[in-house]
User: Fold this.
Amino acid sequence: MPQTRFHPADAAPGKLIMVLHGRGDSMDGFTWLPEALALPGVAYMFVNAPDDYFGGYSWYDLPPDQGPGILRSRALLAGLLDDLVGRGWKSEDVAIFGFSQGCLMAIDVGARYPRRLAGVCGISGYVFFADELQTETAAHAREMPWWVSAGTQDHVVPYALTAEGVEAMRDAGLAVEWHAYQKGHTIDPERELPDVRTWLAKVLA
Assistant:
């Protein structure tokens, strides 16, 4: 199982956000998120991706070799969600938040996980296995809230690639709330983060 850390450390079953970092980062890269979001009564589970990558971690290999790693990480994350349920957390009280590679994994797992989640928030990522979404998306995922954003100045994951993925998600019946920001490959603290907070507060209410 991947390395995980809870905030607070003694978090009991309730509302939870699973946080998935980007390539080369780690769970430590998002320790600022709970204070920034300031969502009362919400716990966080930070997850390290399984592969070492230049001092950080990666969920899957670089193009064109993403597929095997995505499938492996999909299974690992589904296992983490199963473990949470086994420990008393309700899947519908768990939202997934992912950035970059973490965004791709959040979308990939959220669409296919066999239990309903509170929602999926993906930032600056894209969709892999887009064609399979049509047949592999769980029926309850089409009733879940989805939030995806991208930067119009992103030179790591081009805006058009994220937009293309959103279209594939919508074609598969996912009700995606789609946002574009004038930013690069980052999270905009002034405009984007408040929007994310409002959305997460709503889906975890």
Remarks:
- The chain has a mean pLDDT of 97.
- Residues 4-203 form a domain with the Rossmann fold fold (CATH 3.40.50.1820).
- Residues 37 and 194 are 8 Å apart (CA to CA).
- Strands lie at 4-7, 15-20, 42-47, 51-53, 56-58, 94-99, 119-123, 146-151, 176-181.
